[in-house]
Amino acid sequence: MRFILRGKQLIDGTGAAVLPAPLLLIDNTQICAVHSGHETPRAWGHVDRLLDYSHCTLLPGLIDAHVHLIWGGTADPVADLAHESNDLLLLRAADNARLSLFAGVTTVRDCGGRAGTTFVLREAIARGLIPGPRVRACGRPLTPPGGHCHFFHGEADGLTGIRDAIARLADEGADFIKIMATGGGMTATTNPGVASYTAGEIRTAVEDAAARGLTVGAHCHGVEGMWHAVEAGCRTIEHASFMTPERAIVYDPRLGERLVARGTYIVPTLPAGYHPAARLRRQATRTHDEDQGLRARERREAIMATLYRMGARLVYGTDNGVNLTPFGEPVLGLQLMEQLGMTPLQALHSATGLAAEALDVADTLGTLQVGKQADILAVAGDPSQDLRALTHLEMVMLGGRPLASSAPIHWQDAAWHSDTPYEDSTRTAYAQADD
Ligand SMILES: [Zn+2]
User: 96 CA to middle of ligand 1, Å?
Assistant: First the structure.
């Protein structure tokens, strides 16, 4: 079907200024012309139908570069996993996919699940069996025996183990390779500040993946693991916490400069742990450990703000699914990007055009330009002025197909609805912009 989509204004996802009075000509799944003005260009010829959202801002569907669809964002997803079948994980992943799509996320990059669940989910969505965003899946992340997220069963030991695991995942249809370059907070037996693979092992993973046309995303908290990942040429670094083996957050300026020079995409996953931290901040009294945790979080955010000022490519990713980080609230992650010093348009760019580059899908997704898939949101209000406009979602279009706006009622933690999500005086930018 050929039709015209009309909006009040358009954010194209390239980071460019807002375009007034947009008309988009959509043929089947694809955008085939973009025009600004009230008259339909003659060259478009006869068009049967008009989808009129002239009271709305049009923008690309969001791309979340880091989720775990099989997890429910409960208090302890790892404990849940121990007594849940793969069938149940698949059904939960389907539910999370639906929540994401109806909240405006049209592409997700799944950064790890058990068995082949995320591949099956991707297939079911692609076939139209269930509603959901486009899924880019790594399947099981590579990790050393007993390493971070070993319970996903992606253990790969040494060079041979890594090569075998990548070959298997590529056969199963992995869209990219995820490797755990350090320990992680969700696997208590590991140290997030310590590298879990050698520099040579990470390099082998990147080379082997590249030979199969795949990029590598590296989970990294520790500085040593981050060095391995950036030097090996990993496409993305997830979390990037600048952690020492003693688990202190300490900025390494040489590493920061190297990340910028290499153009490594960094996915800071700021929403992970945001709600518990916000709750702690509201508490009248806190333990020493709780205070330390809050300070570590603030240091990480300050480092990300520094990297952004230096020109680092920060990509939107929520880590939805991990502890108390539920699906269905994409605006929170955008607001947290804004607090690093991004304008709303820059935050949206990190979740559209830039994210598409990081995911290797920029030829078809991420921006509202000719030749791209028509993954489009219509929202009341102006997200280029206030990102919260994205909660007033009127229409989600996936591949040229408008979906009924049956967005689920999704109660949010009140913290992020307030004008000052942080009480912290160093973060006044957002509060002022809102006054
Ligand atoms: Zn993750």
Answer: 15
